[in-house]
Design a protein that fits this description.
The protein contains six helices and 31 strands. The two termini are about 25 Å apart. It is about 10% helix and about 30% strand. The protein folds into two domains: about 260 residues, no CATH class; about 140 residues, Rieske [2Fe-2S] iron-sulphur domain (Rieske Iron-sulfur Protein, 3-layer Sandwich), CATH 2.102.10.
């Protein structure tokens, strides 16, 4: 059990940061942003390799993931929730979890406001305020590529968007470092999502504005309400460095800063990604890894496996198998943590990860990393980028099939999937 001093050191600054999202006081300066710990020295990194001009490709395909359920069967015992619910019109007679698994994160319903009418700007315009190492969520649909900077998402957590006719919600829970894209098409309608102000396993609980059912962001499960026990569909997305996005998609679109009183680019959770004490997390983190070690994860409906970023960064390429399927994992240095230093642009280098099927036209490929941040296959000596695109060699113009994967903090991954395999054990 955490000490009262530890609880105060973590709780007071984080609640202050979250409540800033619920209100609209004058925007604080970067120096006034709340801090959860001392800033960490920035490591020296190699210069970013030169941009590669690529041909236009078809949108990348992706193998959808199943997800083990973290809740149980639907409970209809009539027990009301032991917390305030007057702002909700949810059917609280239906749920899949016990009420004591849900905690208040501080802000009220929609206190952290979702972005419902997003606007976008050009790469050139965004480049005036984004540094090359800053993390963005890449989402592609048809011939459109959009970047959603974590510098914005850290203050809003949900963007309800539509890309080339595809309704999508781009979500980011900073407490679990969980960035996930969802299909908003569900049950014959398009859902709009907002924040409940509640957490489970320290993860964002969303609600849809159509039925006001509550959903677990980490797993896409319906927890409470009419859609308790249901499952949202994941869409492929990837966290990469801004420099990689602008090089690959010079005509892409970038989420513009909303007209809101928020210090975009400032991290209100300074030092959080080196904490051993996750915020509002019940019980001790699984000791197999440090609590906030980043992991890349894959799931099926019955199993899960995680690969630590530290090992991926050390090896550059990992060839493995999951659920009987061969996979290859790429790690590319040069992407900053959004949860390290006060200014996101100065965050430590955690890199970017992607997981693919290593087969092209029936040929199994083996890969090795290059110092430039690219990858070369042994069989054809073609060169590949972090997006799984062959940019040089006999296979130039070919794309690997991406697997829907998740980049999260270990403590949350292990809490939702306690029977997970762990690479390296």
């Amino acid at each position: 059990m955490r000490s009262s001093l530890s609880f105060l050191l973590w709780t007071v600054p984080v609640l202050a940061a979250l409540l800033l999202s619920a209100c609209t006081p004058p925007a604080p300066s970067a120096q006034a942003a709340p801090s959860l710990g001392r800033e960490i020295p920035i490591p020296v990194t190699e210069p970013t390799p030169p941009s590669v001009v690529l041909p236009d490709f078809e949108p990348r395909t992706s193998v959808a993931a199943g997800m083990p359920k973290s809740g149980g069967d639907v409970i209809v015992d009539g027990t009301p929730p032991p917390f305030e619910i007057f702002n909700f019109h949810t059917n609280f007679a239906r749920r899949t979890i016990e009420w004591d698994e849900i905690f208040s994160g501080g802000p009220p319903k929609d206190g952290i406001p979702a972005i419902d009418s997003p606007t976008f700007e050009s790469v050139d315009a965004a480049d005036l305020w984004l540094d090359d190492a800053e993390p963005v969520i890449l989402y592609q649909q048809a011939d459109a590529a959009r970047a959603y900077p974590l510098a914005i998402l850290i203050w809003h957590e949900i963007v309800n968007d539509e890309v080339k006719g595809q309704p999508v919600s781009i979500t980011f829970c900073p407490l679990c470092n969980a960035s996930i894209a969802f299909d908003r098409n569900f049950d014959g309608q398009v859902l709009d999502f907002g924040t409940t102000g509640r957490l489970r396993n320290s993860d964002l609980i969303m609600y849809d504005r159509q039925s006001e059912s509550w959903w677990q962001q980490f797993t896409g499960e319906g927890l409470v309400g009419e859609y308790a026990g249901e499952q949202l569909t994941f869409l492929p997305s990837q966290v990469i460095a801004w420099g990689d996005f602008k090089s690959r998609f010079p005509a892409g679109e970038v989420l513009a800063k909303p007209n809101a009183n928020r210090p975009y680019g400032v991290n209100p959770y300074v030092g959080y990604d080196s904490s051993a004490d996750p915020f509002l997390f019940r019980g001790g983190p699984n000791p197999r890894l440090a609590a906030t070690e980043r992991v890349a994860g894959l799931t099926t409906e019955s199993s899960a496996k995680a690969w630590p970023f530290a090992l991926l960064a050390e090896q550059g390429v990992v060839e493995d198998a999951f659920d009987g399927q061969a996979i290859v994992i790429f790690h590319k240095a040069g992407t900053a943590s959004a949860l390290d230093t006060r200014q996101i642009r100065e965050g430590r280098d955690v890199g970017a990860v992607a997981i693919f099927e290593p087969t092209v036209a029936g040929q199994r490929l083996s890969f090795a990393p290059n110092v430039s941040g690219t990858f070369t296959d042994t069989e054809t000596q073609s060169t590949w980028n972090i997006l799984g695109e062959a940019i040089d060699g006999p296979l130039a113009g070919t794309r690997l099939t991406q697997l829907v994967h998740f980049d999260h903090f270990w403590f949350a991954w292990a809490a939702f999937f306690p029977n997970t395999e762990l690479y390296g054990e």
